[in-house]
Amino acid sequence: MSADDHLVSLLQELVHARGPSGQEDEVRTVCERELQSLCDETWIDAAGNVIGMLKGASPDAPVIRVMAHLDELALVVKRVNEDGTLRVNPLGGIYPANYGQGPVEILADDGIVPGVLSVGPQHTTADSARIWETKAKGGNVAMDWNHVYVFTRRTAEQLKEAGVHAGTRVVIAQSRRAFWEIEDCIGGYFMDNRAAIAIAIGAATSMRDQGVRPAGDAYLVMTTCEEIGGHGAAYAARTLPGEVSLAVDSGPACEEYGVALSDEPIVVYGDGRGLYDKAVADRLLACGRTLDMEPQCAYWQSYASDATMAKSVGQTPQAGLLCIPTENTHGFEIIPRNSLVRCAALLAAYLEKPV
Ligand SMILES: [Zn+2]
Q: How many angstroms is it from 216 CA to the middle of ligand 1?
């Protein structure tokens, strides 16, 4: 299997694993297995981050924490309605239109309960105010979480018995987690941030295969709860050695930022939460150029990463961000297939020569 095929099949396995914020066990298990085969030491910290350590070639070189998040955008039960439907809220920045009507899995205490994210019958009038509001002739408002519900076909009592309650996570069903190939791209949910996990693992794999070590110790950190505020990353940055936290994440490919959906990795200089250290970004750019790439530079708004969130609460002195170009971020996400190995190569080059 080529490096590219290996990364894509790993990515598919990661996407199939369920991982709502704070309940990322299935994804964590896959990451732990991969890191164990590549790293000098692998462990899970008290916050639930999986960490793999690659011993550096020199004790004097900078120690780097590479961060990719485990969690996926999911829903959480706000209340169980008397009719057995669920009122849900988003765990992270998503809107109903981006997930659409369709199968979901309710992660009940006693197992998985099937459900359908629903809007209700469209053959209705102003008499059905909630549905009417979402139509052009009605309120003509963007659909929000109060317009939808999870259909369960169970009674409130049955749901209670199954262990469904406020706080229960609801995720996109397995049947909707297959990849969809379009020309040179692959589409699917949760490229954010399973693509970045694959990139970090791809970088470690190619370093091992080429028999090279990072300059200084490198910690590959798969973090918990990024989508709801970067909680795992802040803890890892506080507790691990090193001064640079380099996040790897999905980057919105769109005209607004002058970023294309191409194979070229994105080096980020700042986002809505703060600045990435210019020296780190400049170095990433230089590493890309030595590999004959033309990395794209970006300055995001409406965006935050593990690295800037950790930096903004004083838990990491320096931050960096490497992104994979992505269409439909926080929706049905599409990435150019070749960008996976290219981002992995750039990351490996940076770890080998971070200054
Ligand atoms: Zn992300």
A: 26
Q: What is the CA(138)–ligand 1 centre distance, in A?
A: 35
Measure the CA–CA gap between 195 and 336, rounded to whole angstroms: 11
Single-letter residue type at 322:
L
Contact 230, 304 (CB under 8 A): yes
Give distance in angstroms: CA of 193 to centre of ligand 1.
Answer: 5
Taking CA atoms, 70 is separated from 60, 172, 231, in Å, by 30, 15, 12
CA of 249 to the centre of ligand 1 (A): 5
Instruction: For residue 69, report the distance from its CA to the centre of ligand 1, in Å.
Output: 7
Of 228, 302, 296, 247, the closest CA to residue 271 belongs to 302
Could you tell me the distance, in angstroms and rounded to a whole number, from the CA of residue 139 to the centre of ligand 1?
Answer: 32
Detail the DSSP E strand segments found in 8-127.
41-44, 50-54, 64-69, 74-80, 86-91, 102-108, 111-118
| C-alpha of residue 155 to centroid of ligand 1, in Å | 35
pLDDT one digit per residue (tens) for the chain, 355 residues: 787 899 999 999 999 999 999 999 999 999 999 999 999 999 999 999 999 999 999 999 999 999 999 999 999 999 999 999 999 999 999 999 888 899 999 999 999 999 999 999 989 988 998 888 888 766 667 788 999 999 999 999 999 999 999 999 999 999 999 999 999 999 999 999 999 999 999 999 999 999 999 999 999 999 999 999 999 999 999 999 999 999 999 999 999 999 999 999 999 999 999 999 999 999 999 999 999 999 999 999 999 999 999 999 999 999 999 999 999 999 999 999 999 999 999 999 999 999 9
Expressed in angstroms and rounded, the spacing between residue 61 Cα and the centre of ligand 1 is 28
Domains in the chain and their CATH numbers?
3-72+189-352 (3.40.630.10), 74-174 (2.40.30.40)
Distance 127 CA to ligand 1 centre (A): 40
